[in-house]
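$ run holo --ligand "flavin-adenine dinucleotide" --emit tokens
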Amino acid sequence: MDYRPDAEQQMLIDMVRKFVREEIVPLEDNLDPDGAELDPADHARLVAKTKAMGLYGIDIPKEFGGPDIDIVTRTLLAIEMSQHRAGLYVPCYGVFGGAGLAQLFEANADQKERYLFPTLRGEKKVFFGLTEPSGGSDPARAIKTRAERKEQGWVINGSKIFISGADRAQYGIVFARTDASKGRGGITCFIVDSDTPGFHVRRVVHTLRSASYATELEFKDCWVSDAQVLGEVNKGFAIANDRLSRQRIPYAASCIGVAIKANEMAIEWAKIRSTFGELLANRQAVQWMLVDNELDIRSSRYFTLEAAQKALRGEPFRTEAAMAKLTASEAGGRVVDRSMQIFGGMGMTKDLPLERWYREMRIRRIGEGPSEVQRMVIAREIVSGGVGNA
Ligand SMILES: Cc1cc2nc3c(=O)[nH]c(=O)nc-3n(C[C@H](O)[C@H](O)[C@H](O)COP(=O)(O)OP(=O)(O)OC[C@H]3O[C@@H](n4cnc5c(N)ncnc54)[C@H](O)[C@@H]3O)c2cc1C
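-- output --
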């Protein structure tokens, strides 16, 4: 299969590459090495520029004002746009800033008016509330948050954990059990406004990426009306599942972008750094690390573009998306780790983005479904005979 970009894709890639190098990289020196976000003024400027380039919100469907870029091209652009120190944190393309948003494309007209459009305009932020203290890998069984029918609405009780950015969001997509007798067929998806009585952000949970955080949420007799049900009652699990599969492709792409940049830095360093009278680039031990980096990057790229191609053709791509996420997040961690090794002491400092990526890549083996869950998804397909005919 040929995964080289065509002329139009290459033109967009060149445009994004120029934008990253000229507009984002110069901000790196002022960026808090542990910070999760750009300065608000810089962020606003980048958003304006990406809008002017026609690349803002590239994962937003055309009918909702997105720029009509297909998923393979979006994946190529996501690989490109992650190649800087801020790396995984620049949401202005929308590729990765859409947590929770994709579900709203399926919302009814009233919900779109109240939630989707204001979010697309940047007036509202949304959180995605699936994981609970009882587990995130297997939400169909682990969801204990209950929603009980009452007064033309639902009363939600329970808690959520590791929910990104809920303390800054105006509303969230929340999954709760509405039929205790069923597993995945007993879960419903609700839109919950953050100022709804009975809902509150219990605490900020600081994670490895120290300035970044997730939150813990509490629902105590939190009443929401029927108008807040997203999709159909007891059909919420399918909404979560679809979102998780789709999100794995851009997630993988951003890991590849970081790996490419880390590897480039390591190659440049190996060509100028000497030890014992010889350049690192001439040492076989170092060359082999660079070879392994290259193999990791190419294999991740292959799997990720394969998943995107299948999605573009309208074929089932859940297994390929799992392969992409698994390969790219694990390979990304290895590439960053080897690159740090080649840099020696410099690789440990916050003068370089490597240690920041190192922490981020570690989280990426857990977020959006741990590696073991991806392996389980792929294994099911292998055992049922569905893999091997690509
Ligand atoms: C920084 C951060 C941000 C997050 N943001 C969000 C968010 O916005 N919204 C949200 O809903 N969730 C979010 N999460 C939660 C994340 O999706 C979960 O942590 C993840 O799905 C794993 O769930 P868990 O932590 O409960 O681990 P568990 O489900 O308890 O699993 C623990 C470990 O067991 C192993 N394991 C699990 N299943 C299997 C298996 N079948 N076979 C073998 N081993 C297995 C894996 O190694 C796994 O890491 C976030 C997490 C982090 C760290």
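-- notes --
Residues 91-97 have pLDDT under 50 and may be disordered.
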